[in-house]
UniProtKB/TrEMBL annotation:
Transmembrane is among the record's keywords: no
Protein name: Putative two-component system response regulator
Domain HTH luxR-type residue range list: 152-217
Keyword field contains DNA-binding: yes
Any one GO molecular function term: DNA binding
A Pfam family recorded for this sequence: GerE
Lineage summary: Bacteria, Bacillati, Actinomycetota, Actinomycetes, Kitasatosporales
Annotated organism of origin: Actinacidiphila reveromycinica
Length: 244
């Protein structure tokens, strides 16, 4: 008989917390113990749970699904360290690059899942982490692999989330104007982002920028595999025609 994994959700935002709780409650191999907003609430909630069967130990969670509202940085790492003693931690966040995944694992997390993942992916991750394994969402795996390929002592520069998004669009061949339309930014703002990115990566032209981003794990082949340049260019021509 398949094992049922006891799960606790920690997520600050109410709608997201309820969504995760609903999914894990309905999962065929998961049992939701509790859903709280802040990590410090966990100890009190777990202390109030009944003993597990005849054992005197509290029926704590096998897996703690820890939601992060943004990316993964130093403060998020401290949160993982705070709760990892209460159960195996599975982080759900908007990971910007492989470096953030590495940071999460080094902080004590047993798994990382993108917020863009399918429901089945999260349930699968819970099972892997519950069995004591390490899980990396396929959406994040290539970025993580690229980050591991950094030479010893290399330091990956920290790009803001919007800078990473700009970089990925830039690598597909879009112009600053086209990127601005997709990110709801002015062309001048996009140009400012690109200038910051070049300064942080220490490169000049676009080809060097894209190559450096691959080397640092900020980009993966999946980011540029299906270049939308032609369709975007056509769309831009249509917009200009309709305006004229």
């Amino acid at each position: 008989m398949p094992r049922i994994w006891r799960v606790t959700v920690v997520e600050q935002h109410t709608l997201i917390r309820r969504g995760l709780a609903s999914l894990l409650s309905a999962g065929p191999h998961t049992c939701l113990l509790s859903a709280v907003a802040e990590p410090h609430e966990l100890s009190d909630v777990l202390a109030g749970l009944p003993p597990l069967g005849r054992a005197s130990a509290v029926a704590g969670p096998d897996v703690i699904v820890l939601g992060m509202s943004a990316g993964f940085g130093a403060s998020q790492g401290e949160t993982v360290e705070l709760v990892c003693g209460l159960g195996a931690v599975l982080v759900v966040a908007d990971f910007a690059d492989g470096g953030e995944v590495t940071m999460a694992l080094r902080s004590g997390a047993h798994g990382c899942v993108s917020r863009m993942a399918e429901e089945s992916e999260l349930l699968n991750a819970v099972g892997v982490v519950g069995r004591g394994g390490i899980y990396i969402d396929p959406l994040l795996a290539e970025h993580f692999h690229n980050a591991l390929r950094l030479p010893p002592g290399a330091v990956s520069p920290t790009l803001a989330r919007r800078e990473v998004e700009t970089l990925r669009w830039l690598a597909t061949g879009l112009t600053h104007r086209q990127i601005g339309r997709r990110m709801d930014l002015t062309e001048a703002t996009v140009s400012t982002y690109v200038k910051r990115i070049r300064n942080k990566l220490g490169v000049g032209n676009k080809a060097e920028l894209t190559r450096k981003a691959f080397e640092l794990g900020l980009l993966s082949a999946s980011d540029v595999r299906h270049s939308p340049v032609e369709s975007h260019a056509s769309a831009d021509r249509e917009v200009r025609t309709s305006v004229a």
